[in-house]
Amino acid sequence: MTVELQHPMKAQSTPDEVARSRFTSGMRSLILNDLAADMRSAYDRRAAPAFKKEHGRDPETSREAHQALRGDPAFNIYSTMRVQAQKMVWASVADGVERESGRLAAEAEKADGEGSLMLDPSLEVPKNVHAIDVHLMPGSYTRGDDSLEAGAVYDRGLAVFSMGLMGANLDDIGLSMSQYIKRRYPDFAPKRILDTGCTIGHNTLPWKQAYPDAEVVAIDAAPGPLAYGSARAKMQGQAVAFQQMCADDLAFESESFDVVWSSMFLHELSKKQRAKAFEEAYRVLKPGGLVVHMELPPNEQMSAFDGFYLDWDGYYNNEPYYKGYRDEVPRELCSRGGFDDAEFFDFVVPSIGIYGDQAVADAAQGDSSEGVGQKTTGRLAEGVMWYGFGAFKK
User: How many CB atoms lie within 10 A of CB 236?
Assistant: First the structure.
């Protein structure tokens, strides 16, 4: 069931809109749980055996699993319904945001708090942010130009999309990851934290909560989500400095941050942008600083089918760099950016909202990468686990 956002900076919904959102979330739950299970069964019973009969071996890669499944009725039903449900996500919230646009602008204008917002009109917004409807979201991240529209649509749409699995304010990833780092490295006390590709800052605020004495800066290339996110943070009493900037061209001094963080962001970048973003993260980190990313688990650690299941978005959800990212190796991304290979680590952390604080604490004490390849890692379905990786700068 869709979550009702708990912060004041949200578009209010009519009863009909609430019902529409709940229906859409319910449909997504059916697709990502029941129909996904049907597709897995079809893969095991029909698609993989047919592939083996033709090639003399089982599918070995995500691409081959996709090749084996294409045309199977279970795949066709799953994919058709998932695409339509994705379009319904954004349609279910658009009317409410349009109706509430004036009130949201007024609320943002009077939002009082210690945070700040700095937009850069001269910044050329990258094409991958504005030129295609990423996630099939009409207008993408620049919908409404520099108004609050894109941020408000994204906020409410993500609540419908995530079916309650991302927390009351869509902050479960940030809460889970920041608490994991805090408990795994209890002596690490960052004073300045940077979130790259923050969108509306939903996974930025937990870092301020985890390290309240730290200065937290959040950047994104799109102006509208930043303006919405700044008001959203102030209304939640969180002091965050939002700035319009690209992760591959940081306007910060070298060795000026203790943490560089992102969540579900690296797959939005081209290979060239991604490589540069790691170099920039290394540059702005102080010695002893940490780069840490929450992302989809890499294909190298997944079975052929589970890799295909996560790669699906790259083919059918308007995410052109998605599969390219998942075919890369996180350890190599870090080392090519300048980080010492011995400092790399990856891990799986249970959703703090589903499993609770103690489960996160236990994970921080256990095998850091145990369970990366399990079917719940990175999947918005029952029992979700989050994958992360990072490295300290020597």
Answer: 20
Q: Which residue has the tokens 């937009």?
A: 119
Say what the pTM is.
Answer: 0.95
Q: In this structure, are residues 296 and 327 in contact, taking their beta carbons and an 8 Å threshold?
A: no
Dig out the tokens for 118 from the structure: 């700095």
Q: Are 236 and 280 in contact (CB under 8 A)?
A: no
DSSP strand E in 296-367: where?
344-350
Closest CA to 255 of 114, 68, 393, 119: 393
Side chain identity at residue 140, one-letter code: S
Q: How far is CA 102 from CA 97, 98, 287, 315, in A?
A: 9, 8, 46, 37
Between CA 230 and CA 233 the distance in angstroms is 5
Divide the 394 residues of the chain into consecutive groups of 10 and give the mean pLDDT of each group.
Answer: 77 93 96 96 98 98 98 98 98 96 94 94 94 96 94 96 92 97 97 98 98 98 97 95 98 98 98 98 98 96 94 96 97 98 95 94 78 67 87 98
Whole-angstrom distance, CA of residue 62 vs CA of residue 43:
12
* Contacts for 204 with CB less than 8 Å, ≥ 6 apart: 174, 195, 198, 216, 218, 229, 233, 240
Q: Regarding beta strands 344-350 and 385-392, do their DSSP bridges make them parallel or antiparallel, or are they unpaired?
A: antiparallel
Cβ–Cβ under 8 Å, residues 226 and 119: yes
β-strand partners of 217: 194, 241
- Rounded to an integer, what distance in angstroms lies between the CA atom of residue 394 and that of residue 391? 9
